[in-house]
Amino acid sequence: MPRRRFSATFKSKVALEAIKGQKTISEIASEYEVHPNQVSQWKRQLREGLEDVFTDPRRSGRSEEKEKDRLYQEIGRLKVELDWLKKKF
Question: Above 80 in pLDDT, residue 84?
Answer without folding.
Answer: yes
